[in-house]
User: Which sequence fits this backbone?
């Protein structure tokens, strides 16, 4: 019987012929060569935190979790095993006085999975994780081992930085780290229209700014983080207060709210209004990785699009009208972030300053109608879908949105001409 694989959001399932767990680049290469001899496709998997089926495999699934740890440090360049989980990586970097420049709010992903799908944080001057990649080693479709860096095969770097798992299996990644730093975090409630009317100045007023809007309310919870040197005074949240905010309110109460909303949907709006009064009003200073990330125990599904930054207020207002007109009862907040333009070929922020809108639903709710309405609005505002989050687009819709899309396909044709590293998701978005 074939093993069964499911992603974290329970939105994708696969029954690979087998799951391999190699511990070195050479062992990965041997797995690829054997799979080709058997006529099987090969797909790498990490932590399963993508909401699309990008990691689902019908052939051989390669679990990269054994490819972990820091391999080498050369100044600010850190070479890391591709299967290293982000929460382990940040602790290891911290012991060397280093940090990741920016992070999203979840740190359970592997480095390879996070960079290959375009994981990002927030910050008008900062890009996603993939933009910090200065080199990588990957196993190609022929079972060879290829090194890509700013000096070696440099013409491939813009594609390999965010490769969707379509170019080969990453075995190690060289990241440009930064000196360890603290973040001064201010979390405050605010009015939705106040934030949208002042969107650009507000989102660029500090190093890292984001906000969460609770549907059926007029309120948002804002997060503003300012970078401080590592030797600044640290004023972390106390253990009890942190447990109340990040475990009790953000997870236990959210789970209860989702359960109540399923049984009595009419209670969702008043519960959301209550949440805006009790959640997110604090100030503290802590290590960057402690501030950027938070535990996420309630499983959900997510759709997120990157828009030209100036389009975010209009799109969010349209989303609000769509929710009201349809009469949906949405239990999860809508997340809004920003990022700087970059030159990574398939980055959702390629060539433009971007704003991100993410919508969520509990795994026990059907997200189809809500996500479809959000997607229509985001596409009308020149949106690009996050590669690791749910969307319906195929190559015909995606290619015009990425100026380097044809270049990426050419690199794929060079490194994997027979599409050994494919699956139905990649067939849809690339073929």
Assistant:
């Amino acid at each position: 019987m074939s093993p069964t694989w499911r992603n974290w959001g329970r939105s994708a399932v696969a029954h690979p012929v087998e799951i391999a767990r190699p511990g070195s680049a050479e062992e990965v290469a041997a797995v690829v060569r054997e799979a080709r001899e058997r006529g099987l496709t090969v797909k790498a998997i990490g932590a399963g935190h993508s909401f699309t089926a990008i990691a689902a495999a019908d052939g051989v699934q390669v679990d990269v979790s054994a490819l972990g740890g820091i391999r080498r440090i050369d100044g600010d360049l850190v070479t890391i095993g591709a299967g290293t989980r982000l929460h382990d990586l940040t602790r290891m970097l911290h012991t060397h006085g280093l940090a990741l420049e920016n992070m999203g709010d979840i740190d359970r992903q592997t480095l390879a999975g996070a960079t290959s799908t375009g994981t990002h944080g927030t910050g008008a001057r900062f890009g996603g994780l993939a933009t910090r990649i200065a080199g990588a080693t990957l196993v190609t479709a022929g079972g060879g081992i290829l090194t890509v860096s700013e000096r070696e095969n440099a013409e491939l770097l813009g594609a390999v930085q965010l490769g969707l798992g379509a170019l080969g299996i990453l075995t190690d990644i060289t990241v440009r780290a930064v000196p360890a730093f603290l973040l001064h975090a201010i979390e405050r409630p605010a009015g939705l229209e106040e934030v949208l009317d002042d969107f650009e100045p507000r989102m660029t007023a500090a190093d890292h700014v984001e906000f969460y809007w609770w549907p059926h309310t007029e309120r948002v919870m804002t997060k503003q983080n300012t970078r401080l040197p590592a030797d600044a005074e640290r004023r972390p949240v106390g253990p009890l207060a942190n447990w109340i905010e990040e475990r009790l309110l953000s997870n236990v109460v959210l789970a209860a709210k989702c359960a109540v909303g399923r049984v009595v949907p009419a209670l969702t709006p008043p519960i959301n209004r209550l949440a805006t009064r009790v959640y997110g009003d604090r100030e503290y200073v802590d290590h960057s990785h402690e501030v950027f990330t938070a535990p996420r125990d309630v499983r959900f599904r997510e759709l997120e699009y990157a828009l030209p930054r100036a389009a975010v207020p209009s799109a969010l207002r349209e989303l609000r009208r769509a929710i009201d007109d349809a009469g949906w009862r949405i239990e999860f907040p809508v997340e809004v972030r920003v990022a700087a333009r970059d030159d990574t070929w398939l980055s959702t922020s390629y060539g433009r300053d971007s704003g991100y809108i993410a919508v969520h639903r509990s795994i026990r709710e059907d997200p189809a109608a809500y996500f479809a309405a959000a997607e229509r609005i985001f596409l009308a505002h020149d949106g690009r879908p996050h590669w690791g989050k749910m969307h319906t687009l195929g190559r015909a819709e995606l290619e015009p949105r990425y100026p380097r899309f044809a270049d990426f396909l050419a690199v794929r044709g060079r490194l994997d001409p027979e599409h050994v590293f494919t699956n139905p998701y990649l067939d849809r978005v690339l073929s």
Summary: The chain has three domains: 5-61, 67-179, 183-385. The radius of gyration is 21 Å. The chain has a mean pLDDT of 93.
